[in-house]
Structure formats: structure tokens, C-alpha cells
Amino acid sequence: MTTHTSTITNTTKHNSNNNNNNNNNPQRLKRIELVITPGKSLGPFRLGSSLWDTIQLLRDRPQFFPTVELKYSQKDPLRHDFIISLPSNGIHLRYDGSLQRLKSIECFDPSKVKLVYQNGDVSSSRTIPTFLLIYKSFGPTYPGEFDAAKSIYTLKYPGLAFTFPIPLRFQTLYQSSSDLPMEFPDGTTPIASRVYLYTGSTHWQQATVPSLSKVIAEHNASISTKYGKLGRRELETIIAKPTKGATLYFPTQVSSNETTDSAREPVKTTSNTVQITLHLSTAQDILADLGKPSRIFYKEEDKMKIHSTANDLTALEKQDTKGDRSKASGSNNGSRAVSAEEEDKDPFTVHPTDYFFNYFHLGIDILIDGGLHVCKKIVLHGNIPGHYDFQRYKRCPFQIVFSKKDVKQANGKENSNNVLVDVESDTDDNDPVPVHIVTAEMKAATMQKRIPWKSNDVSNANEQKPVILTRGSSEQNPFGSTHLTGYDEGIVMEVTKNGYVPTIVLY
């Protein structure tokens, strides 16, 4: 696995106003105090919280977290875990690659932080996290596990684990014994080298993401309260239908102890949903349902209109119907000349400015028609690392549902000259996702196989090549360009070089 590491150094932000005389007196790093809540959180880091929220938190507190390193797989970023490393604080945060949510916390150097449990110090400048102290602080538990190969003893509590290096000369004492290493024969006691917090498993290595409950959702949103709506600041999933719209599902109270697979297949309830219908939902409806957007962006120009014609609409951008009528009226040879003043008053020549509602915390944009003030397009963001918009939007957990009838017809045509397949089956033996559904975890090639239409892509004979999208120079965008491919039926996809889809537009 090829791993890419991005480093964010925040110290320069706070030292930029210092003069040269202060360069010899660097500010001492403040030791942060982290409260241990087994199976839930370590200080401000809560299991189940999103990668987007965590990085926002770290950016807002550079005096406590001067260096932040993000590690991920360049080739398959959604199939491998993300790791946020805080070397100055001795902390690793591990996130599920596809969900981008925190599943385990590792404090690999307790001496760099102050650990507190129930108002008592576990590790600090004056407290050493010895085995005796931890056993006294957290109470009795079952015998731990001894790894003879690494000479490490692991003491476990529900949602919490401590590791203790055992000197080689004392290994034989714990290889076949259930005794706790309270104290070595020489009178010394083991000192904790690492602390792990996790949920959903007895081993932190198999930790999974907890279900997205309302408690977790509100905790994630508590960092930024200037936008959004209470109870609707964290998405559980979005079910979208091309040309129709999307239904947003927000988390409700936890109804069971499900913590793992339920995060990938959320239980949807109709008690906390929002329906956005293309060309029908008004701006007022959206504001009432979702609250204030993170930003409102006015679309001053349409750079994709050059690829459109009045008679041949491509999937990249549909020609504005008002513009079509204006062009048609101007082509009448028998019509009189129109003055500039009359043209300004002509409703067919005046184009109101469309505008976006940017909901960064939901991972979506909603384009509003400037004249009718209804939803014109919905943009879904995947927050793919290596993309220009990475960390601008939270990952949107979308699913796009197509007509089963269209999918079966497409599969029937595709396999008419090949081996017969059961097009009546909703699922593939190797993929539990129904064949008529596209998810945010899929690559573009997989999506295109499931979409029952012909795309405007180079992969189709006699079709146009995909449009290349470049955002600035290599210095502004070191990750390079992407390409756009779309369908006349109402979908445009942006595809990165590794085949993932960071952006989908529904219209």
C-alpha cells in the first residue's frame, strides 16, 4: 500500500507577527489535558466523529496541536484507514477509510499529555502511569494478554486498553500465568507505554466505527454552531434519484447496541428526514429544513455553456430555456430591431444570477435558480484525499438509486450475446449492494457499469471525450487535473486519476 502523508504546521500562523528578536524564544508547547471516557472519547476526540470535524478542530487550536500529519493510501484511499498523527502530542487517530469516522484512538506517548480519569491524574508531569496506579484508578478487570514475541502485556477494560513492556528477564513469569504484573521481583512496576480507546470489539486492532447516534451527531456539530439546524447537522445517508431529487436522513436516538455494520447500512427512519425535489423545492423550503448554509455563492458565469448547443444538449450542462427562447426570437428575419433599453426590459434576455447554498458540514451544494428560486441542481461531495476540494466539504454518504426496470433492460442488452445472467436478482454474489444502486464508496468504473445509460465518455465508441478540469497551476493544485463525464438523463461525475468520484451533480 502506497501511503501519502500531508503535514500541516500551525505554529507559523501564530508566530507570523513576531519580530526577529523573538525567534530565539520559541513558545513552549502547552501540555493538553485529555479526559478518558472508556469506549467513547479522549478529550475532544470522540469515537465516531468525522475526519472533517477533527481537522477543523485541530486547525482552530494550533497552540495545542502545532503539527498535524494526515496519512492515507494514494491508490485506494477509501479501502484503507486514514491516520491523523499528532507527533507533538503523542497521539494517533485512526479513521475508517470509506466512512471517514474515528474508530480508535492511540496515545503512543503518555508522557506528552496529561491523562485524567474521574478527576484523578493517570499520566502527567508529576504522575507516572504505572500498572499499580492504573489498576487502582480503573479498578479490577480480567487477566490481560501477554505477547511473548513483543514482550508486551495488555491490560483491557471495556473500550480501553493499556500496554506494558515486560523486561526479557521476567517474561517467564507471565507466559503461562494469569497473574497480573503488579510488581516485578526486583520491586519495580511496569509503566504503560500506550493507551488505546475503541468500541465494538475486545481488541483495538479490530475496532469498528460506532453507529451514528444523535448524541454523536450533536457532539460533532457543537464545534460550529453558526450554521445548520439543531438535529440536522450530521447526515446518516442521502438517497438520491436522478432527475427527481434527494432524501436526506438524519440520525435519531440509538435503538440498539449495533456499532459496526449498522454504520455502513444505517437504519433509516422517516421521523427525521428532509426531501429536496429538483425544480420544485424552494429556497425558503431548504432554509427551513436545513438551516443557514455555511456559505452562499453566486454563480457569476457558466464556464461549461460553451460545450452546449441549443439543438444538442450534453450531460455537462443543459442550455437555459430562457436563453433558447431569446436566441429563437433574435433569428426571425422579419422582426424589427430591438433597442438596448427594450432588451433590458425583455424577460427573455435578462438572466437572473443563480446561487449556491453551500452546506460544507453536510457535504452538499444546492444550486438555486436565480429567477424562480427553486432547486436547480444538487451537488454531492465525496471528500476524496488528493482532490482540490478535500476537507472543504465533509464526506457525503450518498446512494443513488436507479430504476430496476432500466437496469434490467441494460443488463439484458449487455448480456444478450454473452453468458446468460439472472437479471431478476437484486444483488451480486460478490457485492451486497443491489445492482440498481450506486454508493459513495464505488469507483467510477463500477458506477458506470451500474448506471443504465450511455455516458459521454471516451470509453464509448463514437462518443465525445471527457472534459478535462484543471484548477489553477501545479503550485495551487499539486494533485493535478480531473475529468468530467456525464449522462443526458441527469448526472455529471468528476473523476480523479485513481478512479474515485469526488463530486456528483444531479440535475
Radius of gyration, taken over Cα atoms and rounded to an integer in Å: 28 Å
Number of strands: 27
Quaternary state reads single chain
Q: How much β-strand is present in the residues?
A: 25-35%
Mean pLDDT across the residues is 79
**Structural class by sheet pairing and helices:** alpha+beta
**Number of domains as seen in the coordinates:** 2
Report the uncertain regions.
11-26, 254-270, 309-345, 416-425, 458-463
Largest sheet: 9 strands, antiparallel
Alpha plus pi helix count: 10
Helix amount: 10-25%
Strand order of the largest sheet: 1-5-6-7-8-14-13-12-11
Give the overall shape: elongated
Distance between the termini: 37 Å
Pfam families: PHAF1 (PF03676)
InterPro entries: PHAF1, PHAF1/BROMI
Family: Belongs to the PHAF1 family.
GO biological process, one term: Golgi to plasma membrane protein transport
